[in-house]
TrEMBL record:
Pfam families: FtsX, MacB_PCD. The lineage of its organism: Bacteria, Pseudomonadati, Bacteroidota, Flavobacteriia, Flavobacteriales. GO terms for molecular function: transmembrane transporter activity. Residues 294-405, 685-796 form the ABC3 transporter permease C-terminal domain. GO terms for cellular component: plasma membrane. This is ABC transporter permease. InterPro entries: ABC3_permease_C, MacB_PCD, Macrolide_Exporter_MacB. Its main location: membrane. The keyword Transmembrane helix applies. The chain crosses the membrane at residues 21-41, 289-310, 335-358, 378-403, 424-447, 681-705, 733-752, 767-790. It is a multi-pass membrane protein. It is found in: Cell membrane.
Length: 804
């Protein structure tokens, strides 16, 4: 019986070769997209799974409920109090530095070692890397110890058994207490060396508002995380507020409103890569992942729709076969199984082809996402094969059930093809397919317009030919280093100007604090800078004046602010000049002497935040954070100037350290990469959807027009023109397309409006994508269907009239 079914299946594949090829092609494309996105998702979810304590380690995030913003920092006393007063919290580990690099000296050699981390002494209790040498006991206790990865140990000593050896950094000696092997599995926490911020934490033990640390907590098994969040509010946030509120002259609740945070979140360590609202190691983007996954599933659904439509359209060809089989005793269940087998063979062939195509496209996909995914995870094969079975059931069961339900007498007469039931089924499924196609066209155009809007938007500064060099070598007095080298670097041929700024567009680095005025407080970024920095970056002055080095007050208590700062306080420009503000980093009142036009520092997607600009010497501690020097390069020989700068830097400023530099405009452009990739993916998926949909439409129209050739022959004999015949054959499909686009418009509007809500700077919902979707789909439908309709007008009249 099975052999007989397979013979019949292959006869039908050959007979309907066009629809067979289209089904194979559509399903292969759909399954390939599904597997690639599934592998991407699986890779993102695999981070930190290697950790045996992952079930009980949670990343800590703060939540400001009033502004619905999230942070990833905590203060030392908050973490220490949590362990003392909340029973569910067993331990904590703090981070206050990652991606560090130093020039290190050993008895063997002096080399630069990067990818370091500063973490508290409980680190190895949270991350039990395989120990190679030494001991984890007290490995990070004190300020003169460090642990090395096997890679760093080989780089510094040429071997891994180096516990007890000494490493010098800036004339300070560290004893190597442990050597560990990093896991090969995906992890965001892979430091090549670790030392403890012992002295800094010691000084911060009473600093409740010093949120300079990232944090993981180790919880007891079975902890109710939602209840824990409430305990943090009652025992940590409210406790801190009670301590500080008296000095501020407000109630603890008011203090929390002003200075926050007002709540906490806990995310399992193996979920932070994709699901964390805020993380020390980078925020996740689960929403985008779900969008991509949904779109990949939709393409598979479109392929299944093609299958259903083509099978039901071919019903008349199978009617007599079904009638005969029923007449000789075939049961309904046997017929259903036979048609399911035919569908499964096509789906299985598509699955095998998609595996080959996925393997072929994987290197390009890895390059696109900067990953190293390989097809060695059984989950990928398992879930993709489940999708194949689902497609088999969905696309096979519907037509199989309808075909098997034919009554023997009616099927022998071939009446099903003309039945309203069969027509409504095909038209309904075709409408769904075109609704999805319309959504992709509309969505693709809106995504393109939003990305173009962000890229074309006036950023408020000019980073063109501004070359930034980060300080790699630690200095006791970095501001003196800057002041010493800036005049020397001005002398380099091709350098037009030199400056320093803390709030650098595209750098991702920033610091902020509360700024108080009477009973109102806002958070504002710090923009410590050299006097000329804003002019250096071509930022526009809206009102007032620039800072002047010749005025003593400009080096002590005068500041500039941006428009967002003024608007956040609800002032007019004139009011801003009359009011004094008190930043959280100082107790002195500060005077605003100038207001600059807003310019984008962090991200083209986010709203511009309030910034307060002041000279880096204005506060004692800010000058210790001077971390870069910026040079404006003349346009005539940029490459030559960069070479001269690099040569001077490596010989005279930081010999032996990497030359960490970039052009600001290019660095800021990297913040667009994520959205450009979304744009590219949407364009590719859009093309795939349209290709699958139009091929399905062509095959379906071909089958349906084939069934009307006798009608065409009769009408042509009666004098109908080719134009009238073509329009008559395509009219039905054009109406279906028109209705499908009308249905898709409100759906597309809602979904794309939700997507645009993620952007503070967004386009108004445009009209043209909806109009263009309607026009383009009507034109494409007419073009695809009219090809077969035109061929139908050239039928041999004698053949069909003689048949009648």
């Amino acid at each position: 019986m099975l052999n007989n079914w397979l013979k019949i299946a292959f006869i039908n594949y050959k007979k309907n070769w066009l629809s067979t090829i289209i089904n194979l092609f559509g399903l292969t494309i759909g399954l390939t997209g599904f597997m690639l996105i599934l592998m991407h998702w699986n890779d993102e979810e695999s981070y930190e799974r290697w950790n045996p304590k992952k079930e009980n380690i949670y990343a800590f995030q703060t939540h400001n409920k009033a502004e619905n913003t999230y942070g990833n920092n905590i203060s030392v006393p908050m973490a220490e109090r949590a362990v003392k007063v909340i029973p569910e919290v067993k331990d904590f580990v703090l981070f206050n530095g990652s991606g560090m690099g130093y020039k290190m000296t050993t008895k063997v050699k002096t080399v630069y070692q990067g990818e370091g981390m500063s973490a508290s002494e409980s680190f190895f209790n949270f991350f039990p890397f395989r120990l190679v040498s030494g001991s984890y006991k007290d490995a990070l206790k004190g300020d003169k110890v460090m642990a090395l990865s096997t890679k760093a140990a080989k780089n510094l000593f040429g071997k891994t058994n180096v516990a007890g050896e000494t490493v010098k950094i800036n004339n300070k000696s560290f004893v190597v207490t442990a050597v560990y092997e990093l896991p090969e599995a995906n992890s965001q926490i892979k430091p090549d060396f670790i030392f403890s911020p012992y002295e800094q934490m010691k000084g911060d033990k009473e600093q409740w508002g010093n949120f300079n640390y990232g944090c993981f907590f180790l919880l007891k098994p079975g902890t109710d995380v939602e209840a824990l969040q409430q305990k943090f509010y009652d025992n940590i946030f409210l406790y801190r507020a009670k301590i500080s509120a008296q000095g501020a002259g407000v109630t603890p609740q008011k203090y929390l409103e002003l200075y926050g945070p007002t709540g906490s979140l806990f995310t399992p360590i193996d979920k932070i890569k994709l699901h964390a609202k805020a993380s020390w190691f980078g925020n996740g983007d689960f929403k985008t992942m779900m969008i991509l996954f949904t779109l990949s599933v939709l393409i598979v659904v479109l392929s299944a729709i093609n299958f259903i439509n083509l099978k039901t359209a071919q019903a008349s060809q199978r009617a007599k076969e079904i009638g005969v089989r029923k007449a000789i005793g075939s049961t309904k269940s046997n017929l259903v199984l036979q048609f399911l087998l035919e569908t499964f063979v096509i789906c299985l062939a598509s699955y095998l082809l998609s595996l080959a195509l996925t393997e072929l496209l994987l290197p390009s996909f890895n390059k696109f996402y900067n990953k190293e995914i390989v097809m060695n995870d059984w989950h990928i094969y398992f879930y993709s094969f489940l999708m194949v079975l689902a497609v088999t059931l969905i696309s096979g069961l519907i037509p199989a059930t309808y075909l098997a339900n034919f009554k023997a007498i009616e099927t022998l007469k071939g009446n099903f093809a003309r039945s309203k039931h069969g027509i409504w089924l095909r038209n309904g499924i075709l409408t769904l397919q075109l609704i999805i196609s319309s959504f992709f066209i509309i969505g693709g155009l809106i995504v393109n317009k939003q990305v173009k809007y962000m890229m074309d938007k006036d950023l408020g500064f000019s980073g063109k030919q501004v070359f930034l060099i980060n300080f790699s070598e630690n200095s006791d007095k970095p501001w003196l280093k800057y002041e010493r080298i800036k005049n020397e670097m001005r002398k380099i041929e091709g350098v037009a100007d030199v400056s320093y700024g803390e709030a650098v567009p595209g750098s991702g680095r920033f610091s902020n604090s509360n700024i108080d005025y009477m009973d109102k407080s806002i958070f504002a970024q710090h923009g410590s800078m050299d006097y000329n920095y804003l002019q250096f970056m071509d930022v526009k002055l809206k009102k007032g004046r620039w800072l002047n080095p010749d005025l003593a007050s400009d080096t002590i208590t005068n500041v500039l602010v941006n428009e967002a700062f003024v608007n956040k306080f609800g002032w007019t420009d004139d009011q801003a000049f009359k009011n004094e503000v008190r930043p959280g980093f100082d107790n002195r009142p500060y005077h605003i002497v100038g207001i600059v036009k807003d310019f984008n520092v962090l991200n083209p997607r986010r709203a511009i935040e309030p910034i307060v600009f002041f000279h880096y010497r204005e506060t004692d501690w800010k000058r210790y954070n001077v971390y870069n020097i910026q040079l404006k390069i003349k346009p005539d020989n940029i490459d030559g100037t960069v070479k001269r700068i690099k040569s001077y830097w490596q010989k005279n400023v930081e010999p032996g350290y990497p030359f960490d530099s970039y052009f600001i405009d290019k660095k800021f452009a990297e913040s667009f990469v994520k959205y450009q990739k979304q744009q590219t993916l949407f364009t590719i998926l859009n093309a795939m959807v349209l290709m699958v949909a139009l091929l399905g439409l062509f095959a379906l129209s071909s089958l349906m027009i084939e069934q009307k050739l006798k009608d065409v022959a009769i009408r042509k004999t009666l004098g109908a023109s080719d134009g009238n015949l073509i329009f008559g054959l395509t009219k039905q499909f054009l109406w279906i397309t028109f209705i499908a686009v009308l249905i898709s418009i409100p759906i597309s509007y809602y979904l794309m409006n939700e997507w645009l809500k993620d952007f503070d700077y967004r386009i108004d919902m445009p009209v043209f994508p909806f109009v263009l979707s309607l026009i383009s789909l009507l034109i494409l439908t007419f073009a695809v269907v009219s090809i077969k309709a035109y061929q139908a007008t050239k039928v041999n009249l004698v053949k069909y009239l003689k048949y009648e």
